[in-house]
Amino acid sequence: MTETNTNHTFNGISRRAFLAMTGGALALASFPALALSDAWRRVDEINAVVGDADPIAQGVNIELPLVTENGANVPLKVGIGRPMAEGEHVTAIHIYAPRNPFPEIATFRFVDGFDVPEIETRIRLNESQTVFVVAELNSGAVLMGERDVRVTVSGCLTQADTYAADSLFETRVRVAESVANGTPLEVLTLINHPQETGLREDAQGNPVPKRLIERLEARYNGEVAFVAEFNRSISSNPYLRFFITPEESGALDLVWTEDTGASAQFNADITVG
Amino acid sequence: MAPDQIVAWAGLVIGLAFGVCGQITGFCLKRGLAGWWVEGEGTKIRALGLALAVALVGAQALDAAGLVALRTSLYMQPEISVLTLAAGGVLFGYGMVMANGCGARALVLLGSGNLRSFVVLVCLGIAGAATLTGLVAPLRTAMQSVATLPAPVSPASLPAWLATAGLDGTVARWLVVALMSGGLMAFAFLHAPFRKDAKAMASGFIVGLLVVMGWYATGVLGADDFDPAALESLTFIAPVANTINFLMLATGFRLSFGVAVVIGVFLGALGSALVTRTGKLEGFTRPGSMLRYMGGGTLMGLGGAMALGCNIGQGLTGLSTLALGSFIASGGILLGAWFALRGPGRLPAPRP
After folding, report:
1. pLDDT digits (tens, 9 = 90+) for A218-232
2. What total of structural domains would you count in chain A?
């Protein structure tokens, strides 16, 4: 990690880039529906969310590498690209890695129907396994997708034993200062944090206490616009890219909360034109 | 352009320069050592000494200026696996003499039409990948856990270690750099034939500079707030393995710095051989020597993966960080090469 102190970098995404992005999402969405394996039924955490619904194996686009050398930091991108009925939208995306010690990786909650249901983050995978993504719609329907990932022995041998404590809670955010009305606003966020699982031992064999960023909340003009709930399997220095769709100029507040109650904040003024 | 693309392009350019330089000048540790220890020809080894001096000064200057943080590189692990570093270095050094040149040299020779090097590179890459992530990886990790010492100091570098003895950090750094670089420069330039050999001098200077450019490319050009590139520079074991992987799985891979360097070295040497009309197709004439080269490539892959780098990766790039582990690995490589050139395991000169 380079030592930059850029807490506030601003960089817009052009309309063309956005159209290209959504076009890509549509292209993926047109893939035929694939049958789901029944493996998810053995995961209690997924059953709890799915409930009595019959999950639809369509519209969940998952980007994960097929093979990864570094299970501590696996890039993951999830988008929901299914044609929706009038008024139907995604309310939450859940991500699970059943063969991790704690299968729940994260939950992302979308507050209003205009938000682009797409997120990008980095996750930890303990071993080769199938990652499941469950999307809840406000109509009660549940979408599900799965992807196999092979995790090899780490070839890079880097042991993340040491963590620079001096830059803890330092945040980096990239968001456009102004955006056209009705256009989604891309927000890139990162917070320096070890995201300690509580399952690790230090060099002397003592357990390293659990210490997690548990929540990232985006508020727009004081109202909650997007919520991310992180668990142990989010990589250190939690990274998240998400979208909100502001309808008027206002203030964007981001609040990260640690399980100890400590928190970090970022504020930016957004002009909607 | 996104930082990862810039880093890949920079890697390609650095590789091209290395390939052209190596093809024209014959920069090679094995030839240098054989010349120095066996044949009484001392300019090639001095080119390597000059390269290390330049790389060391440049890398430490980049670090002191705050442009790159060498302590985040692979070479400064918080724990030093003495056994794998030393044993891996010895295996690599011995394999290098068996195969008549290291991995980087094999890439350059392949560009000049030497098909023996193709066999060496395939064996090196597959053995390297097997040791890093494949069949032999569990053995490597087991060996690592047998003899691992916590580094005496963090970061695990020579200046930081001296600093624990009461020396100021900056003073310690530049004292070590001055002594090492000064010594190497004296070793090189006090030798009259080296001063007259423009090719050897140029090769040392350029290769040293390319190591520094590698640090700059990944550390400065690759800096990104959200997705920084891993800090690395020239090395030829994991990248050769990754290049073979990349050929097979390119749709699921991001072109990395190391793979771009490997492709660049081959293309640079090929271009140089074509332009200067020095290329020549060569192969094996005896199956026995093919077996020897295959064994050499395999030992280099195995040993280089265990030691976290080859003669370039640890011997130039690693030492330029002054990491403690790199001294162990480089010592191992020299020992392995000595064993095969002059020691009890002496090998006859290769007859392809």
Report:
1. 999 999 999 999 999
2. 1
